[in-house]
Amino acid sequence: MIHYETTFPVRYYEADPMGIVHHSNYLRYFECARDEMIASWGYGIEKCQEDGIVFPVVSTQLRFHASAKIGDTLRVVAEIESLPLAKLTVKQAVYNQDGVLCADGTVVLGFLNTKTGRIMGCPEQFRKLMEKYDK
Asked: Global pTM?
C-alpha cells in the first residue's frame, strides 16, 4: 500500500458565510494530496504532461462526516491499495487538527496518452515509480 499525507489551513475563500468549508472543496483537497504524492515520487504532474500522460477522473465518491471550518488545519490522506493496470483507485480522507474525520471517499483515475488522444494502460515508468513506494 502507498500512503501519503499533507496538511494545510482552510483558506477564507473556501468557506461559506458561516465559516464552514463548502462541500465542493473536498474534491480539491483530494486532488492537492494526489498531486503532492506524485510529485514526492520525483515525477510531478508537469513531467507527466511533458511525457504525454494525463490522469482523467473516471469517477468520484465522497461522504461527509463533520464540517471543516475557517481556522482549521486539515490533514489530507491519499492511499493506493494496489498497483494499477488500467485505472488508478485512490482512497482519500480529510481530517481536522483534532483528528476528526470531515470527509472520505474514492477517486478513480484513468491514463490518457495526450499524443494519441487515446486511453492507455498504466505507463511503465509510472508503475515502476509506484512499486518503489509500495510498502
From this structure: 0.91
Question: Could you say which architecture CATH assigns to the domain 2-133?
Answer: Roll (3.10)
pLDDT recorded at residue 77: 98
Cα–Cα distance, 69 to 22 (Å, whole number): 9
Q: Left, alpha or beta for 52 (phi > 0: left; psi -120 to 50: alpha)?
A: left
CA distances (Å), origin 133, targets 2, 41, 83? 6, 8, 10
| Residue whose C-alpha is closest to residue 76's, from 60, 55, 62, 92 | 92
Q: Which residues contact 99 (CB under 8 A, 6 or more apart)?
A: none
- Give 61's contacts (C-beta < 8 A, 6+ positions apart): 105, 106, 107
Residue with cell 515509480: 129
Q: Is pLDDT above 80 for 135? A: no
Residue-range domain boundaries for the chain: 2-133
